[in-house]
Predict the 3D structure of the following.
Amino acid sequence: MLLSSRWKNGETAIMNRLNFLKEMQISLLKTAKFIYEPFLEEDTNKLEIATDRILGVEWKTVCRESEVNEGIELKFFNGFPIIIIRSEKNVRAFSGICPSCSQILMISTLYATGKCVQCEKDTDFLQGSGKLEITEYPIRLQEGYLQISFWNRTKNRNDDHA
């Protein structure tokens, strides 16, 4: 069956019932998505916060995203060295401390490498090779700020003894 309607300019629009129902379905789904999307986003954020609390993860704001330059650089956050590497839109963060001897790593911005002068081990950040196995930190961009996830070790230590 064909549905017809007369527009203001006198033209008649004809649409068959199947096309009409398809259009209604698409419109209804778009409306439902528009209505529920803020609620789902809020629930997702709540779930993420709860998971971080359970695991003892703390997100700390290190700097503005605009302050992170292209290439590799060493920044200090609360006296703790962090190596930040940015290539195009990809940002990665590593511990700036040698896991073997706890010395601050020396970095080469030209070759994107790091070396411990105490134990003479090195790493290539771009290739992921070398003798140092440096901790990589999870990163997120939150409202224009770069945040790095640190594991709250004191909380987990207390949980182990409980």
